[in-house]
Structures are given as structure tokens and as C-alpha cells.
What we know:
The protein contains two helices and no strands. Helix 1 (2-16) packs antiparallel against helix 2. The protein has helices at residues 2-16, 28-70. The chain is mainly α.
Amino acid sequence: MRQAEAEARRSYRAEQRRPRFRHNPTGTDAVATATKAADTARERTVEYLLTVRLEQLCEQAAARTEQATLSPRPQG
């Protein structure tokens, strides 16, 4: 998912810009912390996008069910 990867990249860069890592943003501690932040951001974004998509699907299913219930059935 592009949105999740974009959010992970933003989190990674933001973590490296923190004051404690400014002197060495590519050091072991900075990279480890930035990687963890990126992973967390990616996971949260994917969870959010999945939740939104599931809500959309439930709404669509409910609308189809309601439409089917309201539609007259052919007699024959």
C-alpha cells in the first residue's frame, strides 16, 4: 500500500531528525529507532486503511440488502 509506505518513510525521516540523533542520523541507534518508528507507522496506517475499507464494504452490503428487500420480487 502506497499510503502505508509513504507514512513509514515520513516517520523514519522524522525520527532521524530528532535532536538526539541530529549529530549522527545514520548511526546504529538512530537507524534502529527510525526503523521501529517506520514499522509502527506502517502498521497503524494499514490497520486504519483496512478498517475504513471494511466499513465501506459493510455499508455497501447493507445497501444491497436493503435494496433487495425493498425491490418487488417477480411473480411467475
